[in-house]
Structure formats: C-alpha cells, structure tokens
Specification:
The protein has a single domain, classed as Rossmann fold. The protein is 43% helix and 11% strand. α2 packs antiparallel against α5 and α3 packs across α4. The protein is globular. The protein starts with a helix and ends with a helix.
C-alpha cells in the first residue's frame, strides 16, 4: 500500500527506511514459527534492498503487536534514531489488530520523539523537529465494518509500478499463506488491483496509492504537506475527501 510512494521519494533524493514491526512468525501453514520468521526476515531485507531503503529489524511476533509501554519505547527509539520528516504508516482502520496497533504505535512514538523526559529503549536523545504522518489505505480499501476509506490525496505510482511489483515479489513465502487464509490467489495481482482502483478513484492516474494526513498537533504546522512538496505533480488532493470534510463541519 506504500512501496510506490517510498520509491518515488527515493528517486526524489530522500533517504527512505522500512520497519516491519512483526517478524511474520505465524505466516505459514507448514513451517514452524522460527523457520518462517527467518525466511520472512530475509525476504524483508531483500525487498528493502530492491527499494534501496534502510531496513530495521522487527521487534514483535504476529498477533503480539500490542499498544503497550515496552513496544512503544522501542518504536520511539527507532523514530528518534531516524529523525524523519515523513512517517508513512498503516490506516487506523484495517481488518486486523496488528495493523491498527502498528498505526497507533507509529503515531505515539512519533509524538514522543520530541518529549525530553520520555526514555526510549535503547536510549536515544529527543529530536524537536517537524514531522508529518500519513496513513495509507487499508487492505481492501475499506475499514473493518466494510465502509470505504476515502484518501485525502493520491500519489501517482504508475512509473514505479514494475519496481513496486519487484519489491513485493521478494515476499515469496506469502503466496501460499495468503491464498489459503485470506483468499488472495495472487498477492501480486491483489496489490495491482488495489493500485488500479486507487488510480481510477483519482480520475487522473493509472496506478496510485492513497494517503490521509494525521492531525498536526504535536508534530508540525497545520498546512505541512511534505509529500506534496517532494512529489509535486505526482501528488494530487482528492476533491471527494474535501467534500466529506466540509460536510462534517
């Protein structure tokens, strides 16, 4: 849901980072948790290498991504170490708790980056810099109650779609698992279906990724939109989203 945007940022001169919170240790019907975790680790590193991204090791296991003190301090340490201007993370609404808890951890860990009295594990100095958090589209482009999630903005990933596919293809062990447990006959085809649907929603692009900005309080200025500044005409606001916002005011 976000590799295309990462690739475009890298092409624009940005240093990009990837962190899988979970080890993927439950992602197999045939292999032991320890074995599949080793395979998933190597696959994630290979995918990061395709994107020329800095890779960060997982800190939890599947179905153990909890919004708790221990995990938060470790995620916050990574945020302070990287000191990002942009954080791309999961949608707050998704089909499973690991994804939604990851979004919560990313938001609070980023908020804690600038709090001097907050202690991370391992210890990292606070970084009082501006950052903007963007939430990607959920899997299926709907929330857990089947309601469509409308992006605030679209990023045109058409030119990097082949490289996005190459990065996702590194996660070969997921093909059988996703097909058996979630009905995805081809996870590559599923990715492309989502990207094509978002492109159609944009009314401009062939393939796209969708984003919503987190509220700015504690992070930066109200109108900060560094993705727009970095990606220029590859980034377009969604008029339909603004109509929804206007209707709620």
């Amino acid at each position: 849901m976000m590799a295309g945007t990462l690739l475009l940022l890298h092409d624009a001169g940005w240093e990009i980072h990837c962190m899988n919170i979970s080890s993927g240790n439950l992602g197999s019907l045939t292999m032991s948790p320890a074995k599949i975790a080793r395979i998933r680790r190597a696959e994630a590193q290979a995918s990061a290498a395709v994107m020329q991204a800095v890779w960060h090791a997982p800190i939890c296991n599947d179905l153990q991504v909890f919004y708790d003190d221990r995990t938060l301090r470790r995620v916050a340490a990574v945020v302070r170490e990287v000191n990002p201007s942009i954080v791309l993370t999961h949608s707050p609404q998704d089909y499973m708790e690991d994804h939604m808890n990851t979004a919560r951890l990313a938001v609070t860990a980023t908020f804690a980056r600038s709090v001097p009295g907050y202690r991370t594990v391992p210890a990292r100095h606070h970084v009082p810099t501006n950052v903007t958090i963007y939430h990607g589209s959920p899997h299926g482009l709907r929330d857990g109650l089947r309601r469509p999630v409308v992006p605030e903005a679209f990023v045109n990933t058409t030119d990097v779609q082949d490289r996005k596919r190459e990065a996702l293809e590194c996660h070969r062990s997921q093909r059988g698992w996703l097909s058996a447990t979630q009905g995805m006959d081809s996870y590559i085809a599923t990715m492309e279906e989502f990207a094509r649907t978002l492109g159609s929603m944009s009314k401009t692009f062939t393939f796209a990724e969708g984003w919503r900005r987190h509220l700015h309080y504690g992070f930066g200025e109200e109108n900060d939109d560094p993705l727009k500044a970095a990606l220029k005409d590859r980034y377009v606001l969604n008029p339909a989203y603004q109509r929804i916002v206007d209707g709620l005011q």
